[in-house]
Design brief:
By secondary structure, the protein is an alpha+beta fold. It has a domain of about 140 residues: Nucleoside Triphosphate Pyrophosphohydrolase (Alpha-Beta Complex). Helices cover about 35% and strands about 25% of the residues. Strands 1, 2, 3, 4, 5, 6 and 7 form a seven-stranded mixed beta sheet that branches. Strand 2 and strand 3 form a beta hairpin. The longest helix is centred in the middle third of the chain and has 26 residues.
């Protein structure tokens, strides 16, 4: 019977207006740089776990934005499923880092991708990161616009307005394999396998003839 998967959650935490940067955390046990994330507590939902883990690992309270994707991989033969949301820090650090974390780095997206120690996290951030940065730029640009509501004349009431349906994006990002398969006829391994099969066929034919 297959074991239940490990459930975890985290965030792509982005700050900065003109030059957005992404938060990475360094693990104390091995020095690896990873995205902030962690396992769900018993009875905890993924969104609450993501916000809690990011707060504990980065020291920042955060505002959770849109869902950006799911990362699936194996840990010691057991599946691990990590859900991620885009997040924005609320000011400076609000608490000390948890004991498992050595330090936090804020890096531009390309540098953050290169600094990540684990290939599946590099592939995930390369896939989901550009959209997260784009959304961050758009929301920070909207916040930066001066409010003209008080200066503009009151608009005429609109009747029979239809409700607006906003679909929450749901994207699944799995580790990307970078190996392009070579043509079958050109692969030395396939040639070797073919020679072995021919050898086995000849050997069986030889044995059948001896028995006859």
């Amino acid at each position: 019977m297959a074991e239940n998967p490990i459930l975890a959650a985290g965030g792509i935490v982005v700050r900065g207006n003109t030059r957005p940067t992404v938060a990475l955390v360094q693990l104390r046990k091995d020095g690896n740089w990873v995205l902030p994330k962690g396992k769900l507590n018993r009875g905890e939902d993924a969104l609450a776990a993501a916000q809690r883990e990011v707060h504990e690992e980065t020291g920042h309270t955060v505002t959770v934005k849109e869902f950006v994707g799911t990362l699936c991989y194996e840990v010691n033969g057991r599946s691990k499923i990590v859900q991620f949301w885009r997040m924005h820090p609320n000011g400076g650090p609000a608490r000390e880092l948890m004991d498992d974390i050595k330090q936090v780095a804020w890096l531009p997206l390309e540098k953050a991708i290169r600094k990540l120690a684990r290939p599946h996290e590099r592939a995930f951030l390369a896939s989901a990161g550009p959209a997260a940065i784009k959304s961050h730029r758009e929301t920070t640009a909207i916040r930066a616009l001066p409010s003209a509501a008080a200066q503009a004349p009151a608009a005429a009431p609109v009747t029979a307005a239809e409700p607006v349906v906003v679909q929450e994006p749901v994207a699944v990002h799995e580790p990307v394999t970078m190996h392009e398969p070579a043509p079958m006829a050109m692969t030395p391994v396939n040639c070797a396998v073919s020679r072995r099969r021919k050898f086995v066929a000849r050997a069986w034919g030889w044995l059948r003839r001896r028995k006859a």
